[in-house]
UniProtKB/TrEMBL annotation:
One of its GO terms (biological process) is amino acid transport. GO terms for cellular component: membrane. It is found in: Membrane. Gene3D superfamilies: Amino acid/polyamine transporter I. Pfam families: AA_permease_2, AA_permease_C. It comes from the Eukaryota. This is Cationic amino acid transporter C-terminal domain-containing protein. It comes from Equus caballus.
C-alpha cells in the first residue's frame, strides 16, 4: 500500500512539474539595465527588427513565387494577424516587465513545459532569421561589386547542387554574422548608436524607393496580360501572408525590452502600435511600387528592389537601394544577434538550459558565452543553407509563439494564478482594483448557467474550455484550408465537421467570456478578451495550415530535440524545481510516517 501511494504521489507531482508557474524575481542585472530606452528607441528597435525582413528578404520571393502583385494584400493580412498578437504581447510586456519575451510570458501564465517549448521555438526562429538576412545582406553587397564575390567563390571554392544547401558557400554572410557578434560583445551602447544611424538611413531609402517607384509605375504590369493582380488566386495570397507574418515580429523585441524602457506601461503599447503600423505601411507601399515598376515574373527573389531599378535602366538607384538594404539588415543583425543569446540566457537563468549560458561579461553586461556559441552556429547556417530553404522555415516559429501567447492571455486574465507566481498588486505597472471580483468565477448574472463547472477545482473548467477552443479552432481551420476533397471526406461529412467545429468554437468562447477577469487600473489590457485572443488563435492556425510540409517537418524535429533537452536536463535543474525540493522531502516523509 505504501508503495502504491508513493508511486501515485510521484506521478502526480511529476505532472505538476510540467505546469508549474514561474516565480518572478528581479535580478541585479535587470535593475542595472532599467530605464535607459525612450519611446523612440523602442520604435526604432521594432522597426530595426522587422524593416529589413519584409522589404529586402521576403517581398521578391513572395511576389514571384506565391502572390504576384497581390503581395501587398499578403502583407496586409499578415499585418492584421500580427496586430492581434501584438495586443497580447503589449499587455504581457507591461504586466510582466523583463527579458525573455514570449518565453517569460508563457512561464508566468501557462507553465514550465509550454514556456520551454516557446523559448526553444523562438531560438529556432531567430537562428533561421539571422541566417536568411545575412544571406540577403551578402547578395546586396555582391550586387554592388557586380557579383564578383560570387564568381570568385564558385571559381576557386566550387559549387554543388544539394537539396536545402546553397549553390556555393557564402563566406561573406558568415563573416558579417561573426562581425555583428563581435560588435554586440562590446555592450548595448554600441549597438544602440548603430541602430539609430542605420534606421535613419533606411528610412530615407524607403521613401526614395516609394517615390521613384511610383514615378516609374506601369499599371500594365497588373493587367491580365501579365497574369493579373492575383495570378495565384486566394490560396497564393494566404500562402504569402503566412510567409510575410515574420515581417511584423518586431513587437516581440519591444516587449522583451520593457524592463529597460522609461515608463513601460505607456511606451510599450504605443511603440508596438507605431512600429507595426509603420512596418505595414512601408511593406505595402514598397510592394505596390515594386510590382508596378516591373512584371512580377521578371523579379530576382534575392535582389528584388535593386534588380527592378536595374531593369528600368536606373542602375544608380539600384546602388542607393543596395546601400539602404545593407544598413537596414545591419540593424536587424545587431539587434537579433544580441537578443538571441539573451533569450538563451533567460532560459539558462531559470535552470531550463545549460548553466554555462548564464555567464555575463562583468563590464559590458552581455551574455558573452551565448553570443560566441550562437554566433558561430548562425554563421555556419548562413554559410551553407540555401536562401529559399531559410525563408520557408522562418514563419512557423513566429506563428506558433503568437498562438501560445494569445492562449496565455486568456489564462492570465481568467484563470487565477498563485500569488507567488506573478507580480500582483505590488507590481509597479498596474494595481488590482480592491473591490474587483475574483477572476475565474462565473459572473453573478450567469452563475446558474452553466451549473456543471461547480464540481471542478478553481480554474479547471477554464483550462478545459480553453483547450476545447484551441482544438475546435484547429479542426475548423483544417476544414477551411484542406476541404473535403483533400481530407477524402464526403460532402455531408465535411459540412458536418465544419458546422460542428464552428459551434464548439463559439460555445467555448461564450463559456470563457462568462467568467470574471482580472482588471488593472492604469495599465494596458487587451480589449475584448477572450474574443481578441481567440481570433488571433484562429487566424494564426489558419496561416500555419498554408505553410509547406518542410516547415512542419523541420519544426517538429527541432521540438523533439527540445523535449530531449527539457526532460533530460531542464525539468530537473529548473529553479522552480529547486524551490519545490525542500517541501517535497517534508511531504514525502510525512506520508511515509502516516502509512
Amino acid at each position: 500500500m505504501a508503495h502504491e501511494l508513493s508511486s501515485t504521489t510521484s506521478l502526480s507531482h511529476f505532472c505538476q512539474k510540467l505546469n508549474r508557474l514561474k516565480t518572478l524575481e528581479e535580478s541585479t542585472t535587470e535593475r542595472s539595465l532599467r530605464h535607459h530606452l525612450t519611446m523612440l528607441d523602442l520604435i526604432l528597435l521594432g522597426m530595426g527588427t522587422t524593416g529589413s525582413v519584409g522589404l529586402y528578404v521576403l517581398v521578391g520571393t513572395v511576389a514571384k513565387e506565391m502572390a504576384g502583385p497581390a503581395v501587398l494584400v499578403s502583407f496586409g493580412v499578415a499585418a492584421v494577424a500580427s496586430l492581434l498578437g501584438a495586443l497580447c504581447y503589449a499587455e504581457f510586456g507591461v504586466r510582466v516587465p523583463g527579458r525573455g519575451s514570449a518565453y517569460l510570458f508563457t512561464y508566468v501564465s501557462m507553465g514550465e513545459l509550454w514556456a520551454f517549448l516557446v523559448g526553444w521555438n523562438t531560438i529556432l526562429g531567430y537562428l533561421i532569421g539571422v541566417a536568411a538576412v545575412a544571406r540577403v545582406w551578402s547578395s546586396y553587397v555582391d550586387a554592388i561589386f557586380s557579383h564578383r564575390i560570387r564568381s570568385f567563390t564558385m571559381a576557386h571554392v566550387g559549387s554543388w547542387q544539394v537539396l536545402f544547401l546553397a549553390q556555393y558557400p557564402d563566406f561573406l554572410a558568415a563573416g558579417v554574422i561573426l562581425l555583428a557578434s563581435a560588435l554586440v560583445s562590446y555592450g548595448v551602447g554600441v549597438s544602440s548608436w548603430l541602430n539609430r544611424t542605420f534606421s535613419a538611413i533606411n528610412l530615407v531609402v524607403i521613401l526614395f524607393i516609394i517615390i521613384l517607384g511610383f514615378m516609374l509605375a506601369r499599371p500594365h504590369n497588373w493587367s491580365a496580360e501579365e497574369g493579373g493582380f492575383a495570378p495565384f488566386g486566394f490560396s497564393g495570397i494566404i500562402d504569402g501572408a503566412a510567409t510575410c507574418f515574420i515581417a511584423f515580429q518586431g513587437f516581440g523585441a519591444i516587449a522583451a525590452s520593457s524592463m529597460e524602457a522609461q515608463n513601460p506601461k505607456r511606451a510599450v503599447p504605443i511603440a508596438i502600435a507605431i512600429s507595426l503600423g509603420l512596418a505595414a505601411g512601408t511593406n505595402i507601399l514598397v510592394s505596390a511600387a515594386l510590382t508596378f515598376m516591373v512584371p512580377w515574373r521578371s523579379l530576382d527573389p534575392d535582389l528584388a528592389l535593386t534588380d527592378a531599378f536595374n531593369q528600368r535602366g536606373y542602375s544608380w538607384a539600384g546602388f542607393i537601394v543596395a546601400a539602404g538594404a545593407i544598413c537596414a539588415m545591419n540593424t536587424f543583425l545587431l539587434r537579433t544577434v544580441i537578443f538571441l543569446p539573451r533569450m538563451v540566457h533567460a532560459m539558462a537563468a531559470d535552470g531550463l538550459f545549460f548553466q554555462v549560458f548564464t555567464y555575463m561579461h562583468p563590464q559590458t553586461l552581455v551574455p558573452i558565452v551565448g553570443i560566441m556559441v550562437f554566433g558561430v552556429l548562425v554563421a555556419f547556417l548562413a554559410l551553407l543553407l540555401d536562401f529559399k530553404a531559410l525563408v520557408q522555415f522562418m514563419s512557423i516559429s513566429a506563428l506558433l509563439n503568437s498562438t501560445i501567447v494569445a492562449t496565455s492571455i486568456v489564462m492570465l486574465r481568467i484563470h487565477k494564478s498563485p500569488p507567488s507566481s506573478f507580480l500582483g498588486s505590488a507590481s509597479p505597472v498596474g494595481t488590482e482594483q480592491a473591490s474587483a471580483p475574483e477572476p475565474g468565477k462565473l459572473r453573478p448574472a450567469l452563475r446558474p448557467y452553466p451549473s456543471f463547472p461547480g464540481g471542478y477545482r478553481p480554474g479547471a473548467a477554464v483550462a478545459w474550455a480553453l483547450g476545447v477552443l484551441v482544438a475546435s479552432a484547429i479542426t475548423l481551420d483544417c476544414m477551411l484550408v484542406f476541404g473535403g476533397s483533400a481530407l477524402h471526406l464526403p460532402p455531408w461529412g465535411h459540412t458536418l465537421l465544419l458546422l460542428l467545429s464552428s459551434v464548439v468554437f463559439l460555445l467555448s468562447l461564450r463559456f470563457l467570456g462568462a467568467h470574471q477577469q482580472q482588471r488593472r487600473e492604469n495599465a494596458f489590457q487587451v480589449p475584448m478578451v477572450p474574443l481578441t485572443p481567440a481570433l488571433s488563435i484562429l487566424l494564426n492556425v489558419f496561416l500555419m495550415m498554408h505553410l509547406s510540409y518542410l516547415n512542419w517537418l523541420s519544426s517538429s524535429i527541432w521540438l523533439l530535440i527540445g523535449l530531449v533537452v527539457y526532460f533530460g536536463y531542464g525539468i530537473w535543474h529548473s529553479k522552480e524545481n529547486q524551490r519545490e525540493l525542500p517541501g517535497l522531502t517534508a511531504t514525502c516523509g510525512g506520508l511515509e510516517e502516516m502509512v
